[in-house]
Amino acid sequence: MTKQNAVVAVYATHVEAEEAVRELQRAGTDMESLSIVGKGTHTDEHVVGYYNTGDRMKYWGANGAVWGGFWGLLFGSAFFSIPGFGPLLLAGPVVAWVVGALESAALLGGASALGAGLYSIGIPKNSVVQYELAVRTDQYLLMVNGSESQVEKAREAIDNTTTVSVATHTKERAAALAL
């Protein structure tokens, strides 16, 4: 398990999550350290398409304009259909974490690929369950990972936004929980 420092915020709406991305950008957060996860569609919507050209992702669907704003700021993107979640859009380093979990097939006791990816960077199991539930209920995860000072600076910016919940996960805390 690779433990990283991270701050994870849950947002009720894409508008709140998008404003948080802007707030983090204004605060000078390295956009390559930022990840966002959310469902691609709701039950009454249909994905029309997704493609990635170079470092830019395009998404066609009912929330296409919303997701298009995220993809212009974040690096790395993916679209998965994960059992229990349905269509799921991811952007940022979280893509590599989920792909790594899928490639190693080391899924955490009943957890999804998303959960295994989060656990692989040191997010505690109880928090992984909370974050999976948030995504299943159409909420959005926004994560920033980096040094302890970078994560603390991001946390200060996130505290200026409207969140459902926010938690900081540090290497030291993850190591203590493992004991």
Task: Give a written overview of the molecule.
There is one protein chain. This protein is 40% helix and 26% strand. It has 179 residues and is α+β, with helices and mostly antiparallel strands. The protein has one domain. It has a six-stranded antiparallel sheet, with helices on both faces. Strands 3-4 form a two-stranded antiparallel ribbon. A hairpin with a 2-residue loop joins strand 3 and strand 4 (56-60). Helix 3 (94-104) crosses helix 4 (113-120) and helix 4 (113-120) packs antiparallel against helix 5.
Specify Rg, calculated over alpha carbons.
15 Å
The oligomeric status of these chains comes to single chain
Strand order of the largest sheet: 5-6-2-7-1-8
Q: Count the strands?
A: 8
Question: Keyphrases for this structure?
Answer:
single chain; alpha+beta; 6-stranded antiparallel β-sheet; two-stranded antiparallel sheet
Brief digest:
This protein is an alpha+beta fold.
Secondary structure: elements and pairs:
Layout: E1 5-11, H1 14-26, E2 34-39, E3 49-53, E4 56-60, H2 64-71, E5 77-82, E6 86-91, H3 94-104, H4 113-120, H5 125-136, E7 140-146, H6 148-158, E8 165-169, H7 171-178
Antiparallel strand pairs: 1-7, 1-8, 2-6, 2-7, 3-4, 5-6
Helix pairs in contact: 1-2, 3-4, 4-5
